[in-house]
Amino acid sequence: MRAALLAAAALAAAPAAAAPEIEAIRAEVRAAGVYPFERTRTITDTRNGGTRRVEVDRYDPAKPEGQRWTLVSVDGRAPTEADRRAHARAVADQPIAPGPWRLDPLLAGPAPKVTRSGAETVYAWPRLPKGSLPTGRFDVTGNLAAEVFVTEAGGRPTVTRMRVFAPEPFRVLAIAKFDTLTVTSDYARDASGRLVLTRQETVQDANFPGRGRGVMRVDMRFRPLS
Asked: Which of 85, 151, 181, 205 could be 166's S-S partner, Cβ–Cβ 3.0 to 4.6 Å?
């Protein structure tokens, strides 16, 4: 009896198996690897009066680390040296470039809640796996939930959208406070059937020491270069 109880307890404590569709997507993006891309990033921030800044940069995974990002233009002009330094600081806080390869660690959590509506399936996680969304100096994944929208394309499960969000306000080191934080990523298959990231939008309403409180919106459009 004791052995049976122990076995039952161990089974209850073990994480449930992930959905087969999720595992198929994770395997696909691992096998596909990282591709070069061009990104158009539009940034607006109410803390600086809502001014708009448009940057175009490129990422090449074949280059040595520290040289993979290239700033192409800022507001339609050639970047200045100050622009390049600011861009270098910004991308340094992105240990992993955005792309479908990011789906692998983000989807590695326990079995999700599954909701089906017609041809679309929604997988929801109340918390992201720790360390799955590196943000440079801080790991805020414990404060974030996720929803992934999946349909079938070409006989394969295909992510069309992933939404990462903070279910409630949270603080970082008891200094910065996020009232809201949402990252929405849109995916599609290209002509070759490869899953690619097409757009990503980040919206945060936060209060940072020395910068004050405000809403920052970053809209990014992606164009694969290979």
From this structure: 181
Q: What is the dihedral sign for C-alpha 202, 124, 160, 120? A: negative
Mean pLDDT score, 211-221: 90
Chain CA centroid to CA 222, Å: 13
Q: Where are the domains of the chain?
A: 21-224
- What does pTM read for this prediction? 0.87
Tens-digit pLDDT profile for residues 49-104? 778 999 999 999 999 988 999 999 999 999 999 999 999 998 987 778 999 999 99
In DSSP terms, 147 is beta-bridged to 124, 163
> Beta strands of 61-211 (E only): which ranges?
69-74, 113-117, 120-125, 145-153, 156-165, 170-172, 176-189, 195-208
Any idea how long the chain is? Answer: 226
Which tokens sit at 92? 């340094």
| Three-class DSSP category at 90 | helix
- C-alpha 154/C-alpha 78 separation (Å) is 41
Residue 96, Ramachandran bin (φ over 0: left; ψ between -120 and 50: alpha; else beta): beta
Report the Cα 148 to chain-centroid distance in Å: 11
3-class DSSP state of 174: coil
